[in-house]
Amino acid sequence: MCPVVVAAGSRVIPADDMEVGKPAASSGTRRLRDGYVKCLLAVRAQTASRIEHLYYRMGVAVGRRPLLTCVLALLVAAAAGSGLLHWRAGQTDVELYMPADSWVRQAAYFVRDHFREDVRYESVIIEADNVLDPDVLRTIAEVEHDIKTTAVRGRTWEELCIRYSSWFQESALPGAKASGSTPQYPRATELPTEFKQALQQAGLLKNDCVYQSLLKLWPDGLPANLTSAHVQKVVTKGMRSSKSLVTDMSSLLAGVTTDSKGRVVSARAAIFNWLLKASDDAAPDWERDFLDKVLQKNRTKPKGVHIYAVATRSYYDMLDQVLDSNMTVLFAGFALIIFYVILVLGRWNLIQQRIYLSLLGVSIVGLTLLSSYGFCFYLGFHFGPVHPILPFLLLGIGVDDMFVIVDCLDHITKKESNLDIPERIGKAVQTAGISITVTSLTDIVAFATGVTTSMPFLQSFCMFAAMGVLFLYIFQLTFFLGCLTLDEYRVAAKREGCCFIKLREWKPNNLSQKDFMYDLFAKHIGPTLMKTPVKIFVIVVTLVLAAVNTWCILQIEQKFDPTWYLDSASYPIQFNNKLNEYFPKYGKRAGIYLVNISYYDDAQKMHMLSQQLRKNPYLNHDSLQIWYEDFEKWMEQNHHEPEDEDDYKGYLSEFLIFTRNGQEYLKDLKFNTFPFGDYNITTTHLPIQFILMNTTHEQLLGMSTVTDLLQSLNLTNGKHAVAYSPEYIPWYTNQLIGEELLNNLGFGVVAVAIVTLVMIQEIQITLWVISCVIFTLVDLIGSMYLFGLTIEVSTAIIVLLCTGLTVDYAAHIGYEFSRLPGSGNERALTALRLMGPAVFNGGLSTFLAFVLLGFSSSYLFTTFFKLFTSVVVFGCFHGVFFLPVMLSWFGPPSYIQNETHGDADCTGHLMVSKAVTIPNGHCTSSVDAVEVSIVTEKEETPPVAIHPLQHNGGTHYAGGEVIPEGESMLSAHQQKW
């Protein structure tokens, strides 16, 4: 037979095409393959070997100067971290979530500039069998007294409240001061007598604080001998009153029952509304004391009475409380990870334990946060509400890189372990460097694609995440490597790992030299996975999961309610439930804002607007109250026919000041001066209320029908009409987040594919790695439906995060496969042996970071737990099981590649140290056994014996060739030398 001569220093490649009975490939196919191989080898010769040598030199440099390296890393962290002095946070919801060019943001600024509603709302709901019972009313009076006597910084309710004069512009009231807590009132000489009387009766002349309370029916306080009959009489009169909005009680009571004569008998609930000046910096503090007093648990109440309250600050207070209460759980997860790192990195003996190295490795997350946050603040980015999850994300990625570096160091060959420590560190980094570079670069690119989003908070979050991974990568190859070197010097000096006491007569116990995770993959998982029935089963499971989860994806809704983020037992949720039960008209409200409109000249357009609003299927028609409609009805009833605009304004002044209906609209109008004589309406607010809408699709349709209607008015010449509500922010955010999720997923997968191809330099392997990423993302998003989740801000962010994380589970094994010799089965098995433990440990550490959140009652944190658990499970399945199976069958062939270092590299690739001759037909290969006949041109290699390494956990041959335990393609049940 014609011998095949293999040059010295080359990897031995089992020839799959030389199996007995297998026909030779055609000459054309062979030439094409040879050309591809030649091109690939040329590229790798120029890149891979140089990159590996670069990492080797860097590892040696760090190994020789570990302390200096650590100090320099700390200086870099300090320099970048100084950017924390420019900390930016506390943006409004509009600034956080709305793109600069979005119509919602523009509408919000338009309303802010033209309507200037300087109001903070506080509300109280009293529930009882009958809130009109005298004893219940006394309890209400006690609550109201507590509210009015609440003071902060020496300032009471009377000094912080919104007054009726604030319904006008600052110059609206004649004689009013531009500023000050006690503005002067209209001068009597400037108003007709009938106007003064009307203002006095409406409470406008006194300029009282604005609040709504049932107790205003008793301006002098509740009488001592209050009876049910008296209460019923006064309340009935108040509900029928038409003198002013101050005495209108119809909107403050719910569940009202009347007798046959129409007299009010009882009511189930009453609501009280208090208004503060939002521009006063003492208002938030007053609200805190207000809530403490109203909701105090030791208050004596009649049986069956329940008190609920809410303030403007309540939502964010409770959201912060939810975050703070779960931080303890998150940091407990931190402790779990630290314990797990100590368990995995060290061995069970006094010297080879790595407690301090593990702690220093985890501390890199702190350095990374300091550096990345500071650097991003230097760039002008803001800290947002979802940024607190970054430490746990970075911890999972950092622990994964630590496992890869230490695992490679622990499994270098005996010959390399005889080198000095800097050289061994260099050899370990030579292999681990490219592997962690692949995953780090893909993570950085995946997060960096999110910076292109139009949503400010998501753009900021992605930049913080990308910079976090970058600094994490830098500190892993500097600070952690320096600490690892110092720890190796400690081990070499036989100093125990706790107090550094030198143990001269020390030998490792047998238990500490066993690598259980490595043995699990090498002896059980790997060989079992390479069996044909198991491969078929893995592929079928993968396809079934993809099919089921694809169907689930089609069922997922875009739906979100901000109250989901709060604890279901919190007081804002309780208040909201009672509000929906008793006062549904206080639901999701919005407003239409009209500026510079001439209601006399544009009457036709205004009427068209009113008619279309009443036909809108997404609006609550009963809640529509449009002032110019009621004004025209009033003119018809009083037979007023204005001849010009001045006449129109004169009648309007009479309507707004003298009539109860008109007085109700004062809060919805802004004037350039007091509405008497020559004045103009600068802004009109038309309140609207949407019907109950549970899906994002319905909410967006509701918004669009209103905005499209306003555009159809065709207003010109400086006239404007916009619709806006704070509710539009979460609604529109959900629309954007769905679009941004699709765009960023697409860009992220493409970017990750390009980076993976550049680093691995093998098209087929890259395709299979990306297929793992896609399958994992499909299964992850599909699991959202099974968990009862929807597409909203938090779920979308987690999915975007997982785009980068999913690569980590596959890239390590894919890259290792690309640089191994042998058949497909052998290379897949060896790649799984080498990288399987590190991938599994990295996934388990990510799971441990969030596992305790599974016991949380918070929607936000249970969502984190569900989705991160899903990405770990699906990512590990596709990276550890699916990818090796597909590479073993459909992976590219291995290629002979010249090596310049040693007899075996640190991954255990067997290197032939002499030119040998392998007769064709005598080379057979299988997963379980390899039988090879080798005839050397000079002399035969003597038989060798196997001995365990004491320091690395590997195995060496005593006869000169050095092969790690279980790593060589030529180690088998039978070997002929």
UniProtKB/TrEMBL annotation:
Where does the record place the SSD domain? 326-486
A GO cellular-component term linked to this record: membrane
Gene3D superfamilies, alphabetized: Multidrug efflux transporter AcrB transmembrane domain
Source domain of life is: Eukaryota
Transmembrane parts of this sequence = 67-87, 327-345, 357-383, 389-409, 429-451, 457-486, 741-760, 767-787, 793-817, 838-861, 867-890
Which UniProt keyword terms apply here? Answer: Membrane, Transmembrane, Transmembrane helix
Recorded hits in SUPFAM superfamilies, A to Z, give: Multidrug efflux transporter AcrB transmembrane domain (SSF82866)
One Pfam family for this entry, by name? Sterol-sensing
Family assignment from sequence similarity: Belongs to the patched family.
Cross-referenced PANTHER family, in alphabetical order? PATCHED DOMAIN-CONTAINING PROTEIN 3-LIKE PROTEIN, PATCHED-RELATED
* Protein name (Swiss-Prot/TrEMBL): SSD domain-containing protein
Lineage, top ranks: Eukaryota, Metazoa, Ecdysozoa, Arthropoda, Hexapoda
